[in-house]
Amino acid sequence: MSAIRTDGLTKDFSVGFWRKRTHRALDQLTLSVEPGEVFGFLGPNGAGKTTTLKLLMQLIFPTSGVAEILGRPAGSIDVRRRVGYLPETPYFYDNLTAEELLLYFAKLFGYAPADRRRRVDRLLDEVGIGPERRQMLRRFSKGMLQRVGVAQALVNDPEVVFLDEPMSGLDPIGRRQIRELILDLRRQGRTVFFSSHILADAESICSQAGVLVAGRLVSVGRVDEMLAFERGWELVVADLSEAAQQAIGGRARRITQIALGRHALEIAPTESDQFVRDCIESGAHIVALNPLHATLEEFFLRVVQDETGHEGAPSDDSRATEPPPAS
């Protein structure tokens, strides 16, 4: 049984004022996330990531298609008890302290007073909230509120955790703490589904990833398989003469002086042998030859560019992927 499954999930919104038109924010999304996976949901602004998470949480409802969590329809009461959710922009009662807020949420889930206190103290420690946990939330920075948001998503000890941009607003220390927390959830066998714009973080913690562009899932699979191909080679040489730099360096993708008398050449995957021979014949000394592997960021940019023709968001207004305010 999949932890998360969607089949043909589609969402249309009416946009415009006088002459309304239909905007398809999510187009036939079909994917499956297995239990214990950390799934990174990636895409440019306006691609439909937040719309997808809201559909899975039943905050909005699909135009067509189905979504299941833990084998039950998304939105089932028994499923809600087993999931945690951090929205993109969490809103809390800002006259409460972080402790009071989490104790309130733990009470809603039916935990006994002593268990509530232990659970809240442990979660605040894990997300890096110290003595300030007794201050009112209105005094918290965006990054501190984000930490509280992650803690509230875990207060019910969920089997599946949905995080919309969990690294948003965090400093490097906070990002590291949240990465470690997500990895710990994976070690415990929990399923984590999160969207992120910070691709380096996604690469370090995801076991699977999907790329959403203009509402369509254009790539999905294991991260290690996505990045399995070589980008080329880095050839480090010493004592490369100026004549050789012009002759050999002109054929390289890039040549960079990295120290006095040393240069690094970035070359294509199939040309390493020829470059090594040419450098040796010119009198240079080979220092190192290292493979260059693609990063998740490079893979993401290539996929987006293939789909849109440029490295950026789709031309549609990104705000159209969100539902209009409730009347």
Write structural notes for this entry:
With 327 residues, this protein is α/β, with parallel strands linked by helices. It folds into two domains: 4-82 and 158-226 and 297-317, Rossmann fold, CATH 3.40.50.300; 231-293, 2-Layer Sandwich (Alpha-Beta Plaits). Helix content is 33%, strand content 29%. The chain has a six-stranded mixed beta sheet with strand order 6-7-8-3-9-10, with helices on both faces. Strand 12 and strand 13 form a beta hairpin. Helix 3 packs across helix 4 and helix 4 packs across helix 5. The radius of gyration is 24 Å and the shape is globular.
Features:
Rossmann fold, 6-stranded mixed sheet, 2 domains, 4-stranded antiparallel sheet, Alpha-Beta Plaits, 327 residues, disordered C terminus, alpha/beta
